[in-house]
Design brief:
The structure holds three protein chains of three kinds. Chain A is of the alpha/beta class. Chain A is built from nine helices and ten strands. In chain A, helix 3 (about 95-105) runs parallel beside helix 5. The mean pLDDT of chain A is about 90. The relative contact order of chain B is 0.21. In chain B, helix 1 (about 5-35) runs antiparallel to helix 8 (about 190-215) and helix 2 (about 40-60) runs antiparallel to helix 3 (about 65-85). Classes of the chains: A alpha/beta, B mainly alpha, C mainly alpha.
Chain lengths: ~240, ~290, ~325
């Protein structure tokens, strides 16, 4: 579904991504791992158009999406969540999701239709799916950290993507909250057949949910394959697993 | 169009640029270090001119009055700035940009009327000391002496700022605060004292600009509005917080304005805005690297 | 803002507030309709000025409050709208209706051009470019003697017979203000308005949800320009003259202060700010020539002690939802 080929990106002479390659098959959960500073977030930003690549290709559903504007990439069917909490702080929980749903249906430029009654069912569906219905009229800044992180992911689902990118979905979370996210990822993948690409520090989580793993080291893809193969790969052990013990 | 006219107009433009630079250097320092959009900077400049005028009058418009005014007016404005920073600004450092901007704008309104109350509304003028009066000839071009004086003072100020920012401990702290405030906090430097210092220095520069311009123009209400918009544009097109960017764009503005007066006198007023608009459109982040 | 506070705010209360708002505005409009029979002509004229200013301030707030954009020179569109009418009525033989329609349209067009450049920049840079390009328009109007009569402005602008009495101007401005406020309110509550808030809160996230942030901001900018131009048309009806000071930077700052005073996050905030400032300047003007000093002190107090504005303050203390 998603192919990344020989992607390169430099910042002020610093080569952040030297040679990234990745293929994400439809319906699978793929994880990108690598030590801090390996370029995982940069890779995500390149895929979603928040950064411009120097060279290389990103293809989605066999269409070239390299260096398209972020909003165009979203309309192709790529959704993403962010590592830090990136929600609309002055809106209610309901409106946070509704904004995504409205944009998905390309109704965001309608001027004279009350937003309040627009696409309510679809928005509630997402809220229910994520267990956020009880909070729907709350200001999102009143939510707990864990709930905000769930909302962060839920917003991305509001635009009904075919491919969901999750950047460190459990960063800063307690074990309980992490379990909640793991179950969520599994459910999205198994029940809804969503294709997911994620980065994560928590190796237990990665080997638990991912069907395929790509290892990024100093901006370069050094291995890509099934979890067992990655676990046994010598270069990966040297570069990464060795480091973390 | 002969060479002499062009040369003397260029010369005048350059010296105007020096005034722009002295004023906007203070503004850009404040921008860079305090991250505050100081609309009151124009008012400080106006205060500098009025205070210089009063000092000069006190000494019967003689040469001593001029030199003393040049010395004392900037210091007086600096003290006023210090009061503003300690008394008001430091309470709003955590507020959003618009609020900080409006606070400094409230000072513009207050200062404008206070000047009216203290000095009255009639136009005032200040004498140029004899030594700087008249003009001299250079390759057939007639160049006013006072503008030559400005062309000497401008680079001295630039040099002084450079020495301060690159050679002194305090200057290095200022630059560090502009580029990476968290780092400065981590090093245990009291950044609010740096803020007070920079704001006072900015005020000194604004006051100096006002005192320098005073003998060349009618000192009147509205001086503040004229300079502040220019200074803002200069600071932004130079790159926020970058003193050298401010120098370059001041010269561009000064020369551009002077050439505009020479070639298209009827619409010369629009020249600075056209320059600023075009530069912002083709180089939105400023000519030189911004401190932000 | 704890969860407790917001959970007390359930639908019924929201509905109650909506009805309360509706009832209040209906009463308000009735009182305003009866006004000319109750007060002297001078106050009728002053109210017409208030209406004009209220429309201007509310249009700015679409960009400033809802869009979160540092728009520093909104007076330009006000002036362009007013000058368009003035020039058409004095230099051409076109009918008045054309002038009235073209006023806001030309303002919107200028907003499109200025906005097209500005929306590519962010934060302070956006603000500075609005300032530079706005000053450019001001300077052109100030200098183009043949067309605009320069510094002197244009006076004794002819208007149709039925718009010559103070009362008819009063009702016209009132009706146009009400209609415009309804339209702007609908826009603020539309998908467009919601999305605009989202781009204000978090532009990057908005982009990754498929929102074309720049185009969205530009649309808001043009709509604001249109209504500012309409306010300019009303200004011509009220004053029958125009001058470059309409586009001066001080004017733009005054509009900003109105928005801030009423509250940037509240729809009726700018209207309240306009009412207060117009009346206050009139009353203060009776006692002293130092109105700007008073305004400055007022603004200082506002920024230091009431940054959320008057309406913003009351709504926040009633209801902990929302508020930025």
């Amino acid at each position: 579904m998603l192919q990344v080929e020989q992607l390169r990106k430099a910042f002020d002479g610093f080569q952040a991504i030297t040679d990234a390659n990745l293929s994400v098959p439809k319906g699978e959960v793929v994880a990108v791992i690598g030590p801090n500073g390996a370029g995982k977030s940069t890779l995500f930003n390149l895929i979603t158009g928040h950064l411009q690549a120097d060279s290389g290709h990103v293809r989605f559903k066999s269409r070239e999406i390299t260096n398209l504007a972020p909003h165009k990439i979203c309309h192709q069917g790529v959704g993403r969540s962010f590592q830090l909490i990136n929600i609309f702080s002055s809106l209610t929980v309901f409106e946070n999701i509704q904004t995504a749903v409205i944009s998905k249906h390309r109704l965001d430029r309608k001027l004279f239709r009350p937003a309040k009654r627009l696409l309510v069912e679809e928005t509630l569906e997402v809220l229910e799916n994520f267990g956020l219905v009880d909070f729907k009229n709350h200001s999102c800044s009143s939510l707990s950290y864990g709930d905000q992180k769930v909302l962060e992911i839920a917003i991305a689902l509001g635009s009904k993507p075919d491919l969901l990118l999750l950047d460190e979905p459990t960063a800063g979370m307690s074990p309980d909250e992490t379990r909640r996210i793991v179950n969520l990822i599994k459910r999205l993948s198994q029940q809804e057949g969503l294709t997911i690409l994620l980065t994560e520090h928590d190796m237990d989580l990665v080997f638990d949910v991912a069907q395929k793993i790509m290892v990024l080291h100093q901006g370069r893809t050094i291995a890509q394959g099934l979890p067992e193969d990655i676990r046994n790969d010598k270069s990966v052990q040297n570069a990464y697993l060795g480091e973390t013990g | 169009m002969d060479f002499a006219t062009l040369a003397s107009q260029l010369f005048i433009g350059l010296s105007r640029g020096m005034i722009f630079f002295i004023v906007s250097a203070g503004l850009t320092l404040i921008f860079g270090v305090l991250r505050i959009t100081n609309f009151a900077h124009g008012s400080l400049y106006m205060l500098g001119a009025f205070i210089a005028y009063s000092i000069s009058i006190f000494f019967g418009q003689g040469p001593n009055g001029f030199w003393l005014a040049l010395l004392v007016a900037p210091i007086a404005v600096m003290l006023i700035s210090l009061v503003i920073e300690r008394g008001l600004l430091r309470f709003i450092y955590n507020q959003e940009h618009l609020m900080q901007m409006l606070l400094t704008y409230s000072l513009v309104l207050i200062a404008g009327d206070l000047v009216k109350i203290i000095w009255g509304t009639e136009f005032k003028s200040m004498n140029i000391p004899t030594i700087l009066r008249g003009s001299f000839n250079l390759w057939g071009a007639s160049l006013p002496s006072y503008n030559a004086f400005l062309l000497i003072v401008g680079p001295i100020v630039a040099l002084g700022l450079w020495l301060f920012l690159s050679r002194t401990h305090l200057g290095k702290i200022c630059r560090a605060t502009a580029t990476d405030r968290e780092m400065v906090d981590i090093l245990g430097i009291d950044s609010t004292r740096v803020f007070a210092l920079v704001f006072a220095m900015g005020g000194w520069l604004a006051g100096l600009g006002g005192a320098l311009i005073a003998p060349t123009t009618t000192i009147s209400m509205g001086m503040d509005a004229n300079i502040i918009i220019y200074a803002f544009l200069i600071v932004v097109i130079g790159g926020l917080g970058n003193v050298w960017g401010a120098l370059i764009s001041s010269i561009i503005m000064g020369v551009g304005e002077a050439l505009g007066i020479l070639f298209i006198p009827g619409v010369a007023i629009i020249i600075p805005y056209v320059i600023a608009g075009v530069l912002l459109i083709i180089k939105p982040s400023g000519l030189l690297k911004s401190a932000w | 803002m704890s969860a407790n506070n917001s959970s007390t705010l359930k639908m019924p209360q929201g509905k109650f507030r909506a009805y309360l708002g509706l009832g209040l505005s209906a009463t308000g409009i009735l009182i305003l309709l009866a006004m000319p029979t109750l007060i002297s002509q001078y106050y009728v004229y002053l109210l017409a000025t208030v209406f004009t200013t209220a429309l201007l301030a509310t249009s700015l707030n679409l960009v400033l409050g809802y869009g979160g954009l540092l728009h520093l020179h909104h007076g330009v569109f006000y002036g362009v709208g007013a000058y368009t009418v003035a020039i058409i009525m004095t230099k051409t033989s076109w009918p008045f209706a054309v002038a009235v329609v073209l006023g806001p349209l030309v303002a919107a067009l200028i907003a499109l051009v200025i906005g097209w450049f500005c929306v590519r920049l962010r934060g302070l840079y956006f603000g500075m470019l609005t300032l530079a390009l706005g000053q450019l328009v001001w300077a052109i109007i100030y200098r183009w003697n043949a067309l605009t009569n320069g510094d002197n402005g244009i006076h004794a602008i002819p208007v149709p017979e039925f718009l010559t009495s103070v009362n008819s101007v009063y009702y016209t401005t009132l009706i146009i203000l009400c209609l415009s406020l309804v339209i702007l309110y609908l826009i603020s509550k539309s998908p467009f308005g919601l999305t605009l808030l989202a781009t204000r809160d978090n532009p990057m996230r908005s982009e990754s949800l498929g929102i074309h942030v720049r185009r969205h901001r530009l649309t808001a900018f043009v709509i604001a320009g249109f209504f500012a131009g309409l306010a300019g048309v009303l200004f011509v009806l009220v004053e029958r003259s125009v001058a470059p000071s309409l586009l001066s930077w001080n004017k733009s700052a005054e509009i900003l202060i109105m928005c801030l005073m009423g509250g940037l996050t509240v729809f009726m905030g700018p209207t309240l700010g306009a009412v207060i400032l117009v009346f206050l300047s009139m009353f203060v003007g009776l006692y002293t020539e130092y109105w700007l000093l008073v305004l400055g002190v007022l603004l200082l107090i506002l920024v230091l002690f009431l940054p959320q504005g008057i309406l913003g303050y009351f709504i926040k203390s009633n209801d902990k939802k929302g508020g930025v």
